Amino acid sequence: MELDFLTESIIKVIAGAVCGGLMGLERKTHNQVIGMRTLILICISSTLLSILSVYMARVNEISIPGRGDPTRIAAGVVSGIGFLGGGAIMKQGLNIRGLTSAAIIWTVSAFGLAIGAGLFIQVGIALAMVLLLLMLLEKLESKYFPAERTKSLHLCFENEIVDIKKLRETITSHGLIVADMNMSRIIKTRQLILHYIVKAPIEYDFSHLLSSIEKLGSLSEFSVTD
Q1: How confident is the model at residue 201 (pLDDT cuts 50, 70, 90)?
Q2: 95-148: per-residue pLDDT in tens?
Q3: Are 88 and 155 in contact (CB under 8 A)?
Q4: What is the CA radius of gyration of the chain?
Q5: What is the rounded distance in angstroms from the CA atom of residue 70 to the CA atom of residue 16?
């Protein structure tokens, strides 16, 4: 039995709220700024705009046959959602945060548009795949690619007699990936200053690395920054 337009629209809006809420819950479990309320609003808004797009196309088709275009409003949503997604991307020190959240904003908008068009099964399959992939890929990345945060490692030795090769091996043996290294010397005080750009796990204790580096020379300064 076919549903009337109002009932169908209400079901679509509720489905959009559920879809956005589930995606927002996934973001909140990762302590992200983009949360449930934001993604629920995006998904419901996209759903309503998709419903409006289909409705206006039907009205135009009745009044002016051949002039109905259900893609016009949807195209505007696709173009405009990029600005909202861009606002979720932030640079913190050497790291860029929010790329996944920005992609999720885009995805939730697509879910809303598809729900508004009545593609419930397709959205359900896509939603399950996205949530499953987000959870599984995070575990895989943590296991096989743990070093994902970029850190700046600053070392200052009180003499120039430091085995640079041995120092690099010590850093990498503690699970860090050396991306770049800059070196400078203060001739008058014979100090050796080394700046390393390294990749480190999100939760990493640098105290063990500090103890190992202290054995390589007269270390006078050690600092780690993002």
Answers
A1: confident
A2: 677 777 888 888 888 888 888 888 888 888 888 888 888 888 777 777 776 667
A3: no
A4: 26
A5: 19
Q: Residue 33 carries which DSSP code?
A: S
What pLDDT is attached to residue 222? 93
End-to-end, the C-alpha distance of the chain in Å comes to: 60
- CA–CA separation, 58 and 112 (whole Å): 19
In a 3-state reduction of DSSP, which class is residue 16? helix
Map out the domains of the chain with their CATH numbers.
5-143 (no CATH), 149-225 (3.30.70.260)
CA atoms within 13 A on the CB side of 206: 18
What span, in angstroms and rounded, lies between the C-alpha atoms of 72 and 12? 20
> CA-to-CA distance for 55 and 48, rounded, in angstroms?
10
Q: What is the DSSP string of 24-35?
A: HHHHHTTT-SS-
Strand partners, 97: 90
Global confidence as pTM: 0.66
Mean pLDDT, all residues of the chain: 82
Gap between the Cα atoms of 75 and 162, Å rounded: 61
